[in-house]
Amino acid sequence: MKKDHTGMRRNLTNYGDEDFSLYLRKAFIKAMGYSEDALNRPVIGITNTFSGYNPCHANVPEIVSAISRGVLLAGGLPIEFPTISLHESFAYPTSMFLRNLMAMDTEEMLRAQPMDAVVLVGGCDKTVPAQLMAAASVNLPAICVVTGPMLSGSHRGVRVGACTDCRRFWAGYRAGEVDAEEIEEVTSNLVPSGGTCGVMGTASTIACMTEAMGMMLPGGATIPAVLADRLRHAEAAGSRAVAMAGEQLTPDRILTAQSLANALRMLLAIGGSTNGIVHLAALAGRLGIEIDYQAFDKMGRETPVLIDLKPSGAFYMDDLYRAGGLAPIFRELRDMLHLDCLTVTGRTLGEEIDRLPPPFSQEVVRPIANPIHEGGSIAVLGGNLAGEGAIIKQSASSAHLLVHTGKAVVFDSLEDLCARIDDPDLPVGPDDVLVMRNAGPRGAPGMPEAGYIPIPRKLARQGVKDMVRISDARMSGTAFGTIVLHACPEAAVGGPLALVRNGDLITLDVPNRLLTLEVDEQELARRRAQRSPVEPEGDRRGYLRLYLDHVTQAGTGCDFDFLAAPRITGKTP
Ligand code: FES
Fold first, then answer.
1. Burial, 33: exposed, middle or buried (Cβ in 10 Å; 0-12, 13-18, 19+)?
2. Which of 129, 153, 224, 336 could cysteine-pair with 192, CB 3.0–4.6 Å?
3. What is the model's pLDDT at position 566?
4. What are phi and psi of 434, to 5 degrees?
């Protein structure tokens, strides 16, 4: 007779005797007061990513409790367990450096412990991508619950929100428009509650993409962290996880090239974070799917930005929630989506769109006929300085800089940038192009969100608000400016940024998707021959060593090469 390997019988510890393994497991877990009845239920794991270092996850205990209630109501046994928790401001050198560690931690805990399904509780930027990557690799029924966006705050009568306004105030401070007293005062107002950043930053972007790809119950992406609705959503997710375990609704049935294309469509329509493309590339790699960047650029040209939300627009995430969340966006995008993709509800995306509540008048989501920004938020650039590809968030750029030629002012590293950017003697003018290199996945290491190169203080004080900036780094989804990112391959492994010299002319031409170093090929070949490889500093042991030996470039999501699927079997979008 075939042995039952569900519930507590899953993933038995190896002692060479399965019955003994189960007997011992039961003996131990009974120490926590469980009855036989409880232990015979479907087991639903819940990732507890609470951390005293992660204010974006401040509400995780309440969410876990609501999920547990939902699991119990549906007849399952909830068991929470800890995994790594990552917050943007509490991760040295960067949270991106640690995303793959969290993905590995989550993956191995899903493999090691007995559970029939899992509810993944994430929120802050890197956490949900790490959890999705893990779920895709383990292929256990999984459903995502995010902590939800924070509320918007108020500073001296003006509405503010992390982190677009964090950057605005800091730029004002550097320009001498905000004094030391006010910059200190504003730290008490920018983040008025727990939850993820209250604008369309990376966390909100990933939450919306996760709902669009079908891994979250409808409506879950935008509910603010502190609302009762967030807990009702969590309870529903717990109940649904029990049903998913019974249905064997595994991620491979939900995560397909088509559902990832739906997520990319959502990324473009919401004017989402450029980080969304990096994380989606990593998730796709786990599934053996590669991103077709030319097709993504084409998708961008035909997908207008529909929401009037910071950093591309005016409103905050709590406004989007009150405007109906993603419902009006799904309605507008309906004809552009793959409607037959399965979701965690067991229904298709098309069926879910048919079930949406009736529309009502609101100002945050625009109709396709009257978008915030025509022609897509993210453009993919080619040309001799873009190498295998670079991206720019044109919806957050200055229109007058989208076609621009300027002299390069080059910084060789983050340290070099810190040391010289505010030097009064730095030879730089407002029409120059700031270039920072060796800030990619290996170079920094950890591909920091440093692409938002500050305007040199002496220019900021003259009123310069934006300049063309180019790097192999990333940028926070909450930032704005004419900023080219993810130049790939990065300078540290010989990418074209390594060849730029101070004073070279660089032309950015976004309408024609070109980033050009105006130096002839013969000279570039000479510079290439002279170049010596850049090795990151530090003690190469432990996780850093694993990271440096295996991290891939931005185009494949900076995952570790050994974690991606062994073969590419499809493309998206
Ligand atoms: Fe956590 Fe912005 S810092 S979402």
1. exposed
2. 153
3. 95
4. -85, 130
196 lines ligand 1 (CB under 6 A): yes
Which strands, in side-by-side order, build the sheet including 142-146? 77-82, 43-48, 117-122, 142-146
**Of ligand 1's atoms, which has the minimum distance to the CA of residue 201?**
2
Distance 87 CA to ligand 1 centre (A): 6
DSSP 225-240: TTSHHHHHHHHHHHHH
Q: Which residues contact 567 (CB under 8 A, 6 or more apart)?
A: 288
Q: What spacing in Å lies between the alpha carbon of 163 and ligand 1's midpoint?
A: 8
pLDDT at 1: 57
Domains in the chain: ranges and CATH: 7-152+190-354 (no CATH), 153-186 (no CATH), 378-535 (3.50.30.80)
**pTM to 2 decimal places:** 0.96
> For atom 1 of ligand 1, which residue has the closest CA?
124
Instruction: Tell me how far the alpha carbon of residue 263 lies from the centroid of ligand 1, in angstroms.
Output: 20
Quickly list DSSP for 364-414: SBPPTTS-SBTT-SEEEEBSTTTBTEEEEEGGGS-GGGSEEEEEEEEESSH
**What is the Cα–Cα distance from 269 to 462, expressed in whole angstroms?**
35
Helix and strand element counts for the chain (H, E): 20, 16
- The rounded Å distance from CA 89 to ligand 1 centre is 8
pLDDT at 2: 67
